[in-house]
Amino acid sequence: MNIETTGTEKAAALRALHVPGHPLVAPNAWDVASARMIEEAGFPAVATSSAAIAAVLGWDDGEAAPVEDMLAAAGRIARSVNVPVTVDFERGYGLKPAELVERFAGTGAAGLNLEDSDPATGVMVGVSEQTDFLAAVRAAAESAGVDLVVNARTDSFLRRAGTPEEQLAASVERSSRYLAAGADCVYPLGVADPEVIRALVEAIPGPVNVARGPQAKTTLAGLAGLGVARVTFGPSLQRQAYSWFASTILQALGDALR
Questions:
Q1: How far apart are CA 121 and CA 91, in angstroms?
Q2: What is the pLDDT of residues 149-169, one digit of tens each?
Q3: Which of 85, 115, 131, 249 is the 20 to 30 A CA-CA neighbour of 174?
């Protein structure tokens, strides 16, 4: 993919990478340097993490950062690499669908995550309200001639909304409705048990994204075997890198004081 690739071509390329059983593995970047490292390592796409970018900018996660700053960061990352970039955009930072599409399109990113719990409170958004929101984003994108790969995050597991059985049922219902509303992929965050992942993949009529972090209970090959179509890492890679940095500077300080 060369530097002349259009936004539409990048979105089509990103969408095509979501293959159940042969998942897109997209490490999450937080700045230009990390995005370029991901591309240079040979990954076909770059994801971002809202928590990781917010930390770099000096804000907490949960839409605390100004939307202008998050859009600017997304644009810098998208312009720095030739592969498609998909951005964790929380719940849209309060933007109405038409404005969201217009402003997001200016970043040059090919896709975005939109979640279904309130980032500030953790309260689940009503399924009909979120379905309508996603449908409006898709309609606004089509009206503007913008192709966006929408990854609809669903947070029943993350927010522990009900019993484990209720979380599974809600995740399947919400995911199915989001796909029908125009989402390209769904992202039940907070699930790690392989059998639950299998149940989700078998019940959801579309590509499923799973996060793999420090608490992972299976390998990337194991996730592929379960039929997962996309694997991301959230802020865990940044946290591991920063943990190494913190321990290294403490060691350096200790050496300097000897």
A1: 12
A2: 999 999 999 999 999 999 999
A3: 85
Check: CB of residue 39 under 8 Å from CB of residue 83. yes
CA 105 to chain centre: 17
**Checking DSSP bridges between strand 230-232 and strand 185-188, what pairing results, if any?**
unpaired
* Whether the Cβ atoms of residue 188 and residue 175 lie closer than 8 Å to each other: yes
Burial of 12 (0-12, 13-18, 19+ CB in 10 A): middle
pLDDT at 6: 76
Q: How far apart are CA 131 and CA 227, in angstroms?
A: 25
pLDDT at 213: 84
**E strand map for 20-73:** 24-25, 28-29, 46-48
Q: Strands 46-48 and 111-115: what pairing?
A: unpaired
CATH number of 7-257: 3.20.20.60
Which amino acid type is present at position 160? R
Boundaries of every domain in the chain? 7-257
Contact 45, 17 (CB under 8 A): yes
